[in-house]
Specification:
Length: 699
C-alpha cells in the first residue's frame, strides 16, 4: 500500500536533491509532494502545509549547515503540533553530524546517510512493514535505549544512470524569458581542498561503504534528460550543471564528452541551448574555451578561491596561480562570462597574502569578484585541524576560529563589518554586478536582433564591472592600511576610523546601486524588443516555440530586478531552542519581509553561552559588533527613522544624500529622490554594524 511522503527543503532554485528523492519514492510506489522552506519566518506555514497533507513520513533535506538549526527547530515544531509519523532527514550535514541530529529532543527518527537513492525505498518499505530499521543499510538511527548508531554502511551509487531523473515539482525560473534549468551530470571530484565539505562528505561515505568518489552519468543519459526538459519547456533552455567538476582533467576528454552529449541532443531534436557550469582552472585551455563558447557555454564558475601562494597551499589547492590566470584569460578571449569568489581569509592568513589577492583583483577587473573567509564546515579537514590545534569554538551548528596572525584577524573583523551589505546581502552590490555579464551573454545567445545595441550594453556592463572590481580592491587596501596603522593608535581611534570607512562603503554602494538600476533597466528593455528568444531549428525540422513571457528569473545569478532593498535580517532563535542549538554565527542574509524595515547583523556577531567560548576576543577591536534595526515611516513629506540597537553603550552616525536632522536614535530625513539611501552606523565597544533603507521602500 502506498504511503504519503512529504519532503521539505530549500527552494532558492529547483532543488535537485529533493527532486531526485521524490522521484525515487514515487518509483517505489509512494505518493510524494515537496514543500519549500526558505526562510524561518515561514516555519509555521510550512508546518501547516506538511500536516494538511496527512503524511506518514516526512523527510527534511538539510543542505546547508548554516540552516541546520532552522530545520531542527522545524522538526521539533512538527512534533509539538502532533505529527506522530516517521521523521527522517538527509543531506551532507546530517550525514556527518548524525549523532547530534538524532538527539532525542529533536524528534528525528533516522538519517539517510549521504546518497539516499538506494536507502530511501528500503526505509519506506521497512516503515510500511513495521520492520526493524537497524537492518536497513545506509541509515543512522537510535537504539531502543536511545543511543544513535549507524547501520551497515552503504557504498556510493556506482551507476548514476540507474537513478531516476529528478521530479520537476514546479515551473523553471526564467532568465529573460528563457527557462533556467538546473541539472547534474556527475557527482564528486578529485580535488583535496581542506575546506570543501562536499569532498569530505564523499570521502567519509567512501571509506566504509566503497564506491568511486568521482562518477559521471553517460552522455546518452544526460542528453535524454536535457531533451525531455527542453521539449517540455517549449524549445529553449539554459542548463546549469551543478557538477563540482563539469570539465575533466584533460581538455580533449572534456570536448569528447560534451560533443557526445551534443550529438545525442541532435538525435532527439534539441535545438538552441545555453550552458552554465563549474570548473577547476587547470582544466581549461584557450582552445577548449573557444569551442565551449560555440556550443553555447554562457558562464563558467572558475574555482579561483585564493591567489596568494601561501593561501592556496594552506587551503590544499596546490599551486594554481598560473592556471588561474590562464583560465580567466581563455574565457575572456572566448567570450565566456566568469565570476569568482576569493577565500581571502583562512587560519594562517597574513596581510601580505591579502595584498597578493588585492593585486590579483586589479589584474582581472573585468571579472566580478566577491570575498569571504574559509569556514570550518562540519567534518572537513579544516575543522579537524583547528580542533586539534584547540583553535575551534562554537558547536556542530557552526564553528569559528581566530586567525593566527593578529593583524589578519583584525582585518577580517573589519571587512566582515564594513562589507556586510556589499558582499553578503542577496541584493548587495556584489551579487548584483555578478549578474551583468551573464545577462548580456543570455541576450547574445537568445536575443541577437540588434547587434549594435547589444554591443553598447556590453560596453556599459564592462565599464561598470571594472569600476566596481577596482573599487573593491581600493576599499580592501584602505582597510588593510587601517589595520597596519592600528598599533600606532588606540582602539577608540581604530573603531572611529572603521566607522568612517564603513560609511564610505555605504555611500559608494548607493552610487553603484543607481548605476546598476539604470543598466539593468536598459537590459530588460532590450530583451522586450523581441518577445521570442532565438531558437535553433532542430534537426528534425520543426521550430518549437518558447513561452513568450519575458521576466527575470528568481536566481541570484541575474542580480536584483530593480532598486528594491532586500536587507539583512538576523533571525531570533525559537523559544524552545536549547543551549546546543544556539548557532554561533548568524544565518546568512535573507530577504526582509516588510518595506521600511531594515535589519543588519554583522557576520561575526556571536552569542556567548555557558557552554560556548568565543574567539571574538576583547584584546582586539570589533570583537562583537552590535545588532541594529532601522525602522522608517513617512509623515508629512519627511521620513522619520529610528535605530534600535541591542548594545547599551553605543554611538550612532547617520548618512544620506538628502537632509538628515538629528544624530541620536531617531532622525528626520528628507530624501533627495526615491533612490536616496539612509544609512546608520552603530558603534559600540564591540565594533560596528550598518543598516540602511531606501526612500522608495518607505511606506
Amino acid at each position: 500500500m502506498a504511503m504519503q511522503v512529504t519532503l521539505v527543503g530549500a527552494d532558492y532554485e529547483e532543488n535537485l536533491g529533493l527532486g531526485t528523492v521524490a522521484a525515487v519514492a514515487e518509483a517505489a510506489g509512494h505518493a510524494c509532494r515537496v514543500v519549500p522552506f526558505n526562510v524561518p519566518e515561514n516555519a509555521d506555514l510550512v508546518v501547516d502545509q506538511v500536516l494538511n497533507g496527512h503524511p506518514e513520513v516526512v523527510g527534511l533535506s538539510i543542505q546547508f549547515q548554516h540552516r541546520a538549526h532552522e530545520f531542527l527547530s522545524l522538526a521539533r515544531a512538527l512534533r509539538a503540533r502532533g505529527f506522530t509519523g516517521h521523521l527522517t532527514c538527509g543531506g551532507q550535514w546530517p550525514s556527518q553530524a548524525w549523532r547530534e541530529t538524532l538527539a532525542p529532543r529533536h524528534g528525528i527518527d533516522s538519517v539517510t546517510m549521504f546518497e539516499s537513492e538506494q536507502t530511501l525505498p528500503e526505509l519506506l518499505q521497512a516503515i510500511e512493514d513495521d520492520g526493524d530499521l537497524s537492518l536497513v543499510p545506509g541509515l543512522a538511527v537510535r537504539t531502543d535505549s536511545g543511543i544513535p548508531h549507524q547501520t551497515k554502511a552503504r557504498g556510493l551509487v556506482e551507476d548514476l544512470d540507474s537513478v531516476p531523473f529528478p521530479k520537476r515539482y514546479r515551473p523553471h525560473d526564467l532568465h529573460y524569458g528563457v527557462p533556467f534549468i538546473p541539472i547534474m551530470g556527475g557527482r564528486g571530484g578529485w580535488g583535496r581542498c581542506n575546506y570543501c565539505s562536499i569532498s569530505s562528505g564523499h570521502n567519509e561515505a567512501h571509506e566504509p561503504g566503497g564506491g568511486a568518489r568521482w562518477r559521471h552519468r553517460s552522455p546518452q543519459n544526460v542528453a535524454s534528460e536535457m531533451a525531455q526538459l527542453w521539449h517540455r519547456a517549449g524549445g529553449a533552455g539554459i542548463f546549469c550543471f551543478h557538477d563540482d567538476n563539469f570539465l575533466l582533467p584533460q581538455p580533449e576528454a572534456s570536448r569528447d564528452r560534451i560533443q557526445a552529449i551534443r550529438n545525442e541532443l541532435d538525435k532527439q531534436g534539441v535545438g538552441h541551448v545555453g550552458w552554465v557550469a563549474k570548473c577547476r582552472p587547470d582544466c581549461l585551455s584557450p582552445e577548449l574555451a573557444k569551442w565551449l563558447k560555440k556550443q553555447g557555454v554562457l558562464r563558467l564558475y572558475v574555482g579561483v578561491e585564493n591567489t596568494s601562494t601561501a593561501g592556496a597551499l594552506h587551503l590544499g589547492q596546490g599551486t594554481q596561480q598560473e592556471h588561474t590566470n590562464a583560465a580567466l584569460a581563455a574565457c575572456r578571449s572566448a567570450g565566456i562570462f566568469v565570476c569568482y569568489n576569493l577565500l581571502l581569509f583562512e587560519p594562517d592568513t597574513k596581510l601580505a597574502d591579502v595584498a597578493e589577492n588585492i593585486a590579483f583583483i586589479r589584474e582581472h577587473p573585468g571579472h566580478p569578484i566577491n570575498f569571504c573567509r574559509a569556514e570550518p564546515y562540519y567534518g572537513t579537514p579544516l575543522m579537524q585541524s583547528l580542533q586539534t590545534e584547540r583553535n575551534l569554538s562554537g558547536s556542530y551548528l557552526g564553528y569559528d576560529y581566530r586567525i593566527q596572525d593578529d593583524q589578519a584577524e583584525l582585518l577580517f573583523r573589519l571587512t566582515a563589518a564594513i562589507f556586510r551589505d556589499r558582499n553578503f546581502s542577496a541584493r548587495g552590490v556584489a551579487n548584483r554586478y555578478m549578474g551583468l555579464g551573464y545577462s548580456l551573454k543570455v541576450l547574445d545567445r537568445f536575443y541577437p536582433h540588434d547587434p549594435a545595441r547589444l554591443a553598447e550594453l556590453e560596453l556599459s556592463a564592462e565599464r561598470l564591472t571594472r569600476a566596481i572590481s577596482l573599487e573593491t580592491a581600493d576599499l580592501l587596501e584602505q582597510a588593510l592600511i587601517l589595520v597596519e596603522q592600528y598599533k600606532l593608535h588606540s582602539p577608540d581611534w581604530f573603531e572611529g576610523a572603521a566607522a568612517q570607512l564603513g560609511l564610505r562603503v555605504a555611500h559608494l554602494d548607493g552610487i553603484r546601486h543607481r548605476e546598476l538600476d539604470e543598466l539593468l533597466s536598459d537590459i530588460r528593455a532590450y530583451a522586450h524588443q523581441d518577445r521570442l528568444p532565438r531558437t535553433r531549428v532542430p534537426p528534425a525540422g520543426r521550430l518549437t516555440k518558447v513561452a513568450r513571457t519575458i521576466a527575470l528569473g528568481a536566481s541570484l545569478a541575474l542580480g536584483a530586478t530593480g532598486c528594491e532593498d532586500k536587507t539583512i535580517v538576523s533571525h531570533p532563535l525559537p523559544p524552545d531552542a536549547g543551549i546546543e542549538d544556539v548557532p554561533v554565527v548568524d544565518p546568512p542574509p535573507t530577504d526582509a519581509g516588510a518595506k521600511g524595515v531594515a535589519d543588519n547583523s554583522p557576520v561575526d556577531r556571536w552569542r556567548d553561552t555557558a557552554v560556548q567560548r568565543t574567539t571574538r576576543t576583547m584584546d582586539l577591536p570589533l570583537h562583537g559588533p552590535p545588532m541594529v534595526r532601522l525602522i522608517a515611516r513617512r509623515e508629512d513629506g519627511v521620513v522619520r527613522a529610528t535605530a534600535r540597537v541591542d548594545a547599551a553603550q553605543v554611538s550612532l552616525r547617520w548618512q544620506a544624500r538628502g537632509a538628515v536632522d538629528g544624530d541620536a536614535h531617531s532622525v528626520k530625513w528628507l530624501p533627495a529622490d526615491e533612490h536616496d539611501r539612509l544609512v546608520v552606523v552603530a558603534r559600540s565597544a564591540g565594533g560596528l554594524a550598518l543598516a540602511s533603507v531606501r526612500a522608495k521602500n518607505v511606506a
